[in-house]
Amino acid sequence: MGIAVTFPGQGSQSAGMGAPWQHTPQWALVTQAEEVLGQDVAPLLVDTDPARLRHTREAQLAVFLTSLLAWESARETLGRVTAFAGHSLGQVTALTAAGVLSFDDAVRLVARRGELTQAAADASGGGMAALLGADEAQAGAACAAAPDACWLANNNAPGQLVIAGTEPGLEAATDAARTAGVRKVVRLDVEGAFHTPLMQPAADALADALSDVELRPPSAPVVSNAEAAACTDADGWRARLVEHLVRPVLWRQSLDALVDLGADTFVEVGPGRVLTGLARKARPDVATELAPVPA
Q: pTM for this one?
């Protein structure tokens, strides 16, 4: 059996999602993150107030840490991993699990990534919308109605495409999508147009943050979202992580790449079950599992 481990991104968070690990040995990671960042992090994982996770930096930190808690708890029982992948932010988690990034560097990177993408979102405005039931041609036609103002941001699974752009761009694109026959358009509860050219200021600054980070070869291939390609090198991630902020997440194609590497089981590690739902739509021929959560 070939196991592909997948890690979720922002949007999978929920209040108190880290609490099951609070009294496990893995919780030492949270203490370590607090020392690295010089701030309290535990409340993001155990507080039942959803307002704690409203902002991008806090949500990304919480999802990353909860995913790493789950990984450290489950890794011994999973056995040999064929490949890793992560959706959006989850790509940083995948690189940490695969050993490309040290935990300390990854925590700093996630915090900085959250700050930079939030700042870019505040400066440009805009948002994201899911085109439910749409195909790629319909999504392309929608974005073409708002040139340089709306783009494809996620190709998640059949009928699960996400566009993002400025507010006027999204309005024009969603109108065009409905005209093209898209049955349902749903605005996402996010504060910016992620994975579009509007994130270029964040990408430029992230390049500086990555310039002196040590990168090591992965323990197993890591599939890159932007190219949907398996990567076994180390230093190439310096550019990939930067480009990833302004390019769409090709998750559907990334799942295909995992299968091409020999995976016949996708194990979602982290909060929620979003990726499991997408996998069942995109690759119903592949088994899916959720990493166990402590009772």
A: 0.96
